[in-house]
Write a structure and sequence with these properties.
The chain is mainly α. It is built from 15 helices and no strands. 47% of the residues are buried. Bound molecules: zinc ion.
Amino acid sequence: MTDTATTTTNEIDHTTTFLKDKHINYITNLDVKKDTFEYWVTEHIRMNGMYWGLTSLNLLGALEKMDKEEIIQWILSCQKPNGGFSGNTLHDDHLLSTLSAIQILVQLDSLDRIDINPVIEYIVKLQQEDGSFFGDQWGEIDTRFSYVAILTLSLLGALDRINVNKAVEFIDRCKNFDGGFGSIPGAESHAGQIFTCVSALALVNRLDLVDIDKLGWWLCERQLPNGGLNGRPEKSSDVCYSWWVISSLCTIDRLNWINTEKLKNYILKCQDNETGGVADKPGDIPDVFHTYFGISGFSLMGQFTDQVETIDPVYALPIKTIKKLGLKAPWNKLI
Ligand SMILES: [Zn+2]
């Protein structure tokens, strides 16, 4: 294809322009594409997908494009007798989809549509003797679940129902010599796990356990010459790390340790100029997961502030929602 042809098909230069309207169209059309491969392989995590899509639209000021009542009815149909929520109607409950359900309901101002007590009970029962959390009845343990449990209970105003000290002890045991955190004690540091551990500690006011400068150094070393971020040493860049790494840097107040201008340009290149949406890498096919992380990345870096609302790095919700709920966020100067 010649340069002239490129200009004709894609009039907007996506490497310099934020494609807000195209992203809104991309997300609102996702649910229509029920015959696609992506729809079926992600069927079991539809609740997470709904959170990524709905939160993106909320950040873009386009929440009214969603059918609020239809979403609430579907969420209610995913609640199980034990209080947990599943990824989709016919699937089993899981802590991850339970958090997504609550994050969606608070954004829709509809927490009063459910009885929160069974949800709280569900989470309380997943805490183990050593302070860790199971993700569901099958017993997988991961610091992701510690964050998810602590965050969900924070949103429900029920943090006092678990043993917070034990939960903190477990997270602290997952801290490594490099300042990072792993999924279980002894597991290597990974940006995703660092995000969950740092955020969980922030929510219970224990950021004193984080070696901020050492961790900040590990995190800023994730930026590659192309501007993108990786999640571990020796790995390639991927837009999803813009959320995990930047949110952690924001929470420990070290965002200025990376080159945000170069990262902004990297994420812009990952936009799909034709369909809208953001991919993991430049030229790849977009998906709702990376679209959310790309838009949130811009939000955390304070880019395109006239088009993207501000998200909180710990609650992973727009700060207007946090303010409405009256929650505390001492790590966030904007709240
Ligand atoms: Zn990714």
